[in-house]
Every structure is written in structure tokens, then in C-alpha cells.
Amino acid sequence: MIKFLGTNKLKTAVFISGNGSNLKNLIEFSLFKKLPIKISFIVSSNSNSKGLNFAKKYKIKSQIYKFNNKTKDENEILKYLKRNNISMICLAGFMKILSNNFIKKYSGTILNIHPSLLPKYRGLNTHRRAIENKEKFSGCTVHFVNSKLDSGKVVLQKRVKITNKDTPKSLSKKILKLEHLLYPKAILKVISNF
Length: 194
Description:
globular; Rossmann fold; seven-stranded mixed β-sheet; alpha/beta
């Protein structure tokens, strides 16, 4: 399953749904900061995702799948990944839940970044929930994807202090900066273990 390119770069797909700031960060790290991945394919579940602009800018093949027919779309994606020797998948703000069948096919090579200190605050509205529960810290987690939502083995975490002035929006901005630092480090850690 794991196939490095001649340049020792791992062919990688990134799955997105939104603004694509983590996608942009991973592309830039892979091109300019020697992260040992080559982003070869971008999947978006949203035709209006701003992240698709980065696919155009950096001339990376992208495809929109709405997941209206999940089995059909996943099978098409799997065929493309296999045909193009893509070894790793990074979920970056991807708002769909992949099936067990899909996850099994790429077991141990699908990563996700989540905006909380897992196992706390799986799912959505993490910042609001952390503030409402008067947490002193929040942060982000890169973890392997398994069949349970936000429950796979943790690769790396980074935390940030929650202040009395923080709102879900301000906390989100602070954590997004951490995500941009953490995701490349986590990928390096995972690849070094292959």
C-alpha cells in the first residue's frame, strides 16, 4: 500500500469541505519546506469550497463528490487512488464521514485534524462547548481515522490557553494557527514510522 515516489515523497490525497487553509498549508509545506509528501489529488465534498482555488493555483487534480450516493462516490475515489498509487489521505476540514469499507482499504494511512484535545469534544461546535464547560485549555489533535468518529489513535496534540475574553470565533482563530504547525509535524512523525 505505501509507495514512495523516486524523490522519497509519499503520494497523498487531501479531502476538504471548506476554506482549505490546512490544505494550503500542507501544499506549501510539501513544495517549499520539504515535507515528504506530494499532494496529487484533492477531494472536495463542496463545490463552493474555497480550497478548490488552491488546487487550481498549484495545478493539482481535484474532484467534487457530493456524497449523495456515498457508496458510488467512495468506490470512484478508491479506484482513482489505487490507479494513481496514492498511499496516504489527509482529511482537512472534511465534513463527511467515511464508511468502514473505505477506512479499511486505507487502514493506518488516513489522518484527520480535529479542533479539540481529543478525546474531549468529538464532533462539531468544539470551541463553543469548551468555553461553555469553562475549560482552561483547548487545542487540536491529529489522529488516525477509524470507524468511530474522532476516536482513532492520537498522533500529536497541541494545546492553547482559553482566556476569559475568548469567544468561539477567537478560540477558533488561535487553534487554526496551531493546526497549521501541528499537521506537518504529525505527517512527518507518521511517515518516519512507515
